[in-house]
Write a structure and sequence with these properties.
The protein is an alpha+beta fold. It has three domains: 44 residues; 55 residues; 60 residues, Head domain of nucleotide exchange factor GrpE (Nucleotide Exchange Factor Grpe, Chain A, domain 2), CATH 2.30.22.10. The protein is 59% helix and 16% strand. β4 and β5 form a beta hairpin.
Length: 210
């Protein structure tokens, strides 16, 4: 006859194994939830990446539009500089002639040309085109100046501006036309440019204009 206690003891391992079988095999519901969580994380990562790319695209587009608005007239503005140069030369000639003759008709012409020149300068500035003229003894800067010839003048530091042949122009933060200058030669070497201070930067004109 079978001992009930022995039978129960023998049956206990079988019951425990049966109870843990689903966990060992894996719960299909838990696996599905885990898969959904992973999929949700992937979608969230893709969404964040897409949003970041869209934000970068928006910023690039805004920057391109702003630059296009400022620099799209560069070619036209460069052509207009020839008109401004001719007017400046005409004024110099008329002033010299007016000083000699003092004729009333020449004075009227001079006033008209000066008015037109001022109006042209205002229109150029309205569209972001700024004129600048280097000062004598200013250190030659290849980013702003174009050397036309050298002037052997011992009274001027070597490597500085001796004469201004033609004014320069900036459009926005870019060079539209460098200033044409003559560079001093033969004098003492120009002192290195001083390190700019916070106060200097606050009041300095990056184009070097007067």
């Amino acid at each position: 006859m079978t001992d009930p206690r022995r039978a129960a003891a023998e049956a206990a391992p079988d019951a425990a194994e049966a109870a843990t079988a689903p966990a060992a095999a894996g719960d299909p519901g838990a696996a599905a939830v885990e898969a959904l969580i992973r999929e949700n994380a992937e979608f969230k990562d893709r969404l964040l990446r897409t949003l970041a790319e869209m934000e970068n695209l928006r910023r690039r587009t805004e920057r391109d539009v702003a630059e296009s608005r400022v620099y799209s007239i560069a070619s036209f503005a460069r052509d207009m500089l020839g008109v401004a140069d001719n007017m400046a030369r005409a004024l110099q000639t008329v002033r010299a002639e007016f000083k000699e003759k003092g004729d009333g008709g020449i004075k009227v012409l001079l006033d008209g040309v000066e008015l037109t020149e001022r109006e042209l300068a205002k229109v150029l500035e309205k569209h972001g085109v700024r004129k600048f003229e280097p000062r004598e003894r200013e250190r030659f800067d290849p980013n702003l100046h174009q050397a036309m010839y050298e002037v052997p003048d011992p009274s001027l530091p070597a490597g500085t501006v001796a004469q201004v042949v033609q004014a320069g122009y900036m459009i926005g933060d870019r060079m539209l036309r460098p200033a044409l200058v003559a560079v001093a030669k033969g004098g003492p070497k120009a002192a290195p440019a001083a390190e700019p201070t916070a106060n200097d930067n606050a009041g300095a004109d990056p184009a070097g204009s007067n």
